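Sat 14:20. Reprocessing the chain from the morning session after the first attempt stalled halfway. Input below, unchanged.
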Amino acid sequence: MGDTESGLDPWTYNGAPVTLKMMIWIDDETFRIRYKEKIEEIFPEITLELISGGDSEEQLQELFAKRIMPDIHIGKPRADLVKTLDFLEPIDDYIEKSGFDLGIFQKGIIENLRAGDPTGEGHLYGLPVENNVRTMFYNKDIFDLFGEPYPEDGLTWNEVLEIAGRLTQERNGIQYRGLAIDPGAMPFMQLSVGGTDAETGEILFANDPNTKKFFDLLDKYRNIPNIVNTNDTLDGFHDGPRNIAMSILNAPWFELLTREEGFNFDMVTVPTWEELPDIAPTWGALPLNITKHSEHKDAAWSVVAFLASEEGQIHLSKAGSPPVIENQTAFEQFTANSTKDLDQTFNSTAPFTQTLAELPPYSRYDEPFFDFMNNKGEEFLTSDQDVVTYIREMGEEYAGIVEEIKAQQ
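Finished this time. Tokens:
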């Protein structure tokens, strides 16, 4: 481990040769480009192996039965990982002893990770390495077709809906749609609304005025004629008919879209609420965690600390992983490995110019909440219910989910 008094980097590793197993849901090629080659270059004593797949309780139990223990795990520290499976533990001591500077991270990232501690004590179980950020991509050809100026950074939701309405028209036998909101709770994630009381499980979101504000926005969206596809015809932003003008996607889609032949696009910031300018939706950055029962924790710390460092983040950004540090070079180098030779220039720093919304305090009853909100947001678009009734019934439905969670404890 590094030592602030010795002048060593926080990720310095002086131990014996070791093989580390990293659990992350990516393919072999992405693992090689982003992690394996770089880590083995920086740390000749460390060999990095991939355990690919999810981290459900069932999948982890299968690994444990085979006596396979990951040393490094990527993902948020859910209650089952910390408590039920005894899989993760805080790394606060490693951070303190190594002198790793948490001030390098973008505003809100560390605070959100602490807010997500299932124990409620604000621990860190890993260091963030990949930001879960969105951006609004737009098809220039559709804007040109309708003579509409290209969107700019800093637009509000209401401004974007006005643009979307003007672009939702039929032309040359094609039904164009101005905006796709996916997932359905995108604007909700900017409002920092918690679902339940952490102690009692009481439903909070149904009486929060921000929940109504969100559904009022979706109501305005669904009332734009023909913007919601209700007849199962094929839509597509970058594929198929390419009839969607604006689409809000994960930032790593940028690299994939550059591979689409003849697709003329660019990107701007995610629309914001008028009273929350520059606040982006957040799902929380992805941390790399050191597992509690790893036999190689010092080596695992070195890998995690390097990947979260300035050098590691610039490397990951070039490979298409959105950076978590506040560093202009890391922003400008996003996807550089695959886009540096393109003729077109892009507004590729757009995903990194906004501040992530605060996550509400952790509640074990909220673990299914945001998936629930996404599904309900999407269902609302084709519902004929009014906003107030819809929210009331959502609250009743989620109360049943809370009771199921309590019954499992």
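Confidence is low (pLDDT under 50) at residues 2-6.
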